[in-house]
User: Which sequence fits this backbone?
């Protein structure tokens, strides 16, 4: 048998399958998707089988020569292949679609512990035995036949490690490369009876009276239906291990090591939750999805429902139907929405049938959850982006909740979008895809209006609850009335009111990364690029404002070009400043602050939310990480400190993101019996994204935004590719960008625009300067191929100059 193997070296030269022989002994352990160790030149590498040929021709004499040149696979690493042939094909598609090595796509699909680690190992040779005895403790260990990883040698024998070169030359020792598997499995010791229950009474009687403890253990075990863990047994009976050991010696009990899953949810009691009678809208949506599930045909839906309309309820019903028909379901949520509440909701409904893949799990826990899928012990997976690669074999349904979330795009190679992968898998499996959102991305909604997704709308909140009322506050008015505080009078009064009533408040600071746009606080004017229609970014070094798409630049004005006010400057408030201000204005207020600083520790996120839930805080203050998924019964006021911040990002999606954020934030209030208020503070209340968000008017927003996108040539009318180049020296990085531009320009059709080279919005990162090119195209079917050719063409130059090039197809972040 022959196997085609992709080796674990992500370079252009190794980006193809290599042929290996499958030794007879391994032939029934290999499959497409197996992880193997193969010799590759002088090295041993991990690889993945992407094809197998059971060909008889392999036995033909004329092929004998080739056969001999082929090397055999050395080892198969898992009992069950971690990948399926579907995933192998998917990875190949991804490597073409996103311009990445095939193996990089494969790596993205498996748990981190399966990514083998290459390691050098030290061993003795026969020459060492013949050599004179030495006092070296390292050598004496090697003499005993031990093989030591180089890292261990360096740690344990730092003094002798420096002598290694000499020993290698003398031929006393050898260094070989091994691939070390990082997989660990948790094992527990289990105890059970080795005799029948009937025999126990007799045995107990046969023991002398002083063997009280043994009797106790025997009688306890005879009451159990299943083996019990040793620790638990010893703990319960307050006895010692030696008691159990002596029973084992007598052959009366059995002690065995058994593998268990590391399940962080194991000891959690999950209450079952009441099922709601579906609203008409929910029932209608479900009926349509159910019809396609029953037909076992590819179909895709956009479930557009206001926050709180009960989308999750619809997903769960659809998942239930999928399982009932013997198929499997993937449910994707943004990392940030994968809260304990969300997990509980699924555990309550699906119990042991669901695996949860969460990045907050340890690598071991993640691997164990993933193995439940691999072993077909679960039928549902709930997880963030990478759960789209769940190795199910009978996939029937994929749900992507909050489909507009940018976290579905991976911002490192492979730069895939989970939605594209989902479409691919759904088609491949004749499965149903459901995209859900209150604020679908423009790309998705545009496709839905053209019939590419079936559109399902839910406009009502379930349970007769209404959407909270939204108060829009014009901060320019506040300034005019001499209120220079970051809290408007309206928000101030409402906070006081809720504090007095012991209700809770969520304050939201709409801020992302770097917000260095220039804004007039008197009239709300911001500077924009006349060519690209995005906000200009303030540059401190030369006091200029610059466009990061095309390079347009103007000096920073001292007075507002619109109203002549001197209150024009760059803008941005931090959460800490808001916290101080709250403490000053509302003495005694208990604030829980959630931002990158307070949530960097593992589990901090949950702890803080838990404290807020149990009312140990009056105000939850945070950035967009608190905008979604949270569901607190006592929250009756949501305040947005400055809606404008995201509106002026140097990103053509700024308006869309603002609309999404404001709508989501509004959805946080009044989800339960208490009615809610939302206060949005802004310097530009007339902006359509803010105006439409206050009325929950997606359609209205969509129409206007589509007009802009069309006029300025952005998605969904045009597609983009972002090329980013980085290097320590500016001239080199500019040359790299110009090389690519020079190569691409004459090969592109006249309707395609190539913008740049310009400095990236983040112009310098880790001491490397960054420049970018942007392709805007409509009818350029060969664009990815052309980019691959450019990569090929410049590969030597790029390597020689050590320039880093990243190509992002359909980018979400333009930094
Ligand atoms: P979405 O995902 O659209 O934001 P959810 O499914 O989370 O909405 O539902 C919001 C709230 O409404 C939840 O507390 C849920 O239990 C409740 N709910 C959902 N469907 C119904 C229904 N048919 N009747 C009453 N309450 C419902
Ligand atoms: Zn002004
Ligand atoms: Zn521009």
Assistant:
């Amino acid at each position: 048998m022959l196997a085609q193997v992709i080796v674990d070296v992500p370079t252009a030269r190794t980006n193809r399958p290599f042929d290996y022989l499958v030794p007879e002994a391994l032939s029934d352990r290999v499959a497409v998707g197996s992880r193997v160790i193969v010799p590759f030149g002088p090295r041993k590498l991990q690889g993945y089988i992407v094809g197998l040929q059971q060909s008889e021709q392999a036995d033909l004499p004329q092929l004998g020569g080739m056969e001999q040149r082929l090397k055999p696979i050395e080892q198969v690493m898992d009992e069950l292949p971690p990948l399926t042939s579907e995933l192998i094909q998917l990875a190949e598609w991804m490597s073409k679609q996103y311009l990445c090595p095939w193996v990089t796509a494969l790596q993205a699909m498996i748990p981190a512990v399966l990514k083998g680690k290459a390691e050098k190992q030290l061993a003795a040779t026969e020459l060492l035995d013949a050599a004179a005895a030495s006092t070296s403790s390292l050598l004496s260990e090697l003499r005993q036949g031990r093989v030591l990883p180089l890292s261990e040698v360096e740690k344990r024998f730092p003094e002798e490690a420096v002598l290694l070169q000499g020993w290698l030359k003398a031929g006393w020792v050898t260094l070989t490369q091994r691939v070390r598997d990082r997989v660990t499995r948790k094992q527990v010791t289990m105890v059970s009876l080795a005799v029948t229950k009937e025999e126990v009474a007799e045995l107990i009687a046969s023991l002398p009276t002083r063997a009280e403890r043994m009797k106790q253990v025997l009688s306890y075990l005879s009451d159990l239906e299943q083996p019990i863990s040793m620790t638990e047994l010893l703990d319960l009976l307050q006895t010692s291990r030696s008691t159990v050991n002596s029973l084992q010696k007598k052959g009366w009990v059995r002690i065995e090591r058994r593998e268990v899953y590391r399940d962080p949810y194991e000891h959690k009691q999950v209450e079952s939750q009441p099922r709601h009678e579906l609203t008409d809208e929910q029932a209608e949506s479900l009926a349509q999805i159910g019809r396609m599930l029953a037909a076992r045909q590819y179909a895709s839906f956009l479930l557009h429902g206001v926050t709180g309309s009960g989308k999750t309820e619809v997903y769960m019903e659809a998942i239930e139907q999928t399982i009932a028909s013997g198929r499997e379901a993937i449910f994707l949520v943004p990392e940030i929405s994968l809260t304990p509440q969300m997990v509980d909701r699924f555990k309550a409904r699906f119990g042991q049938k669901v695996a949860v893949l969460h990045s907050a799990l340890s690598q071991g826990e993640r691997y164990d959850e993933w193995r439940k899928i691999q072993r077909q012990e679960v039928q549902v997976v709930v997880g963030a982006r990478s759960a789209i690669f769940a190795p199910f074999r009978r996939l029937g349904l994929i749900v992507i909740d909050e489909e507009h979330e940018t976290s579905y795009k991976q911002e490192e190679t492979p730069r895939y979008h989970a939605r594209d992968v989902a479409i691919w898998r759904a088609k491949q499996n004749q499965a149903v895809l459901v995209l859900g959102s209150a604020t679908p991305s423009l790309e998705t909604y545009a496709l839905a209006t053209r019939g590419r997704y079936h559109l399902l709308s839910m406009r009502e909140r379930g349970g007769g609850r209404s959407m909270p009322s939204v108060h829009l506050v014009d901060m320019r008015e506040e300034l005019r009335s001499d209120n220079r505080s970051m809290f408007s009078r309206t928000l101030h009064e409402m906070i006081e009111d809720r504090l007095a009533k012991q209700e809770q408040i969520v304050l939201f600071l709409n801020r992302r990364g770097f917000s260095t746009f220039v804004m007039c606080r008197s009239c709300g004017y911001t500077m924009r690029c006349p060519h690209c229609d995005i906000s200009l970014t303030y540059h401190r070094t030369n006091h200029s404002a610059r466009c990061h798409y095309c390079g347009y630049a103007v000096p920073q004005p001292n007075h507002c070009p619109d109203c002549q006010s001197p209150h024009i400057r760059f803008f941005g408030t931090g959460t800490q400043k808001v916290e101080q201000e709250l403490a000053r204005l509302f003495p005694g207020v208990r604030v829980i602050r959630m931002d990158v600083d307070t949530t960097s520790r593992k589990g901090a996120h949950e702890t803080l939310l838990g404290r807020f839930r149990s009312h140990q805080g009056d105000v939850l203050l945070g950035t967009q990480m608190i905008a979604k998924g949270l569901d607190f019964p006592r929250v009756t006021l949501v305040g947005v400190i400055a809606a404008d911040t995201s509106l002026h990002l140097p990103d053509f999606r700024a308006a869309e993101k603002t609309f999404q954020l404001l709508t989501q934030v509004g959805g946080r209030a009044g989800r339960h019996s208490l009615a809610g208020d939302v206060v949005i503070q802004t310097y530009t209340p007339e902006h359509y994204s803010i105006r439409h968000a206050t009325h929950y008017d997606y359609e209205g927003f969509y129409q206007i935004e589509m007009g802009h996108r069309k006029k300025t040539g952005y998605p969904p009318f045009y597609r983009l590719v972002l090329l980013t180049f980085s290097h320590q020296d500016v001239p080199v990085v500019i040359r790299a960008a110009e090389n690519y531009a020079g190569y691409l320009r004459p090969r592109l059709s006249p309707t395609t625009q190539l913008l740049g080279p310009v400095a990236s919005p983040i112009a310098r990162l880790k001491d490397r300067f960054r420049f970018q090119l942007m392709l805007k195209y409509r009818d350029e079917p060969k664009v990815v191929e052309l980019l691959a050719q450019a990569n090929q063409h410049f590969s030597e130059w790029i390597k020689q100059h050590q320039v880093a090039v990243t190509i992002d197809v359909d980018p979400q972040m333009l930094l």
About this structure: Residues 60-65 have pLDDT under 50 and may be disordered.
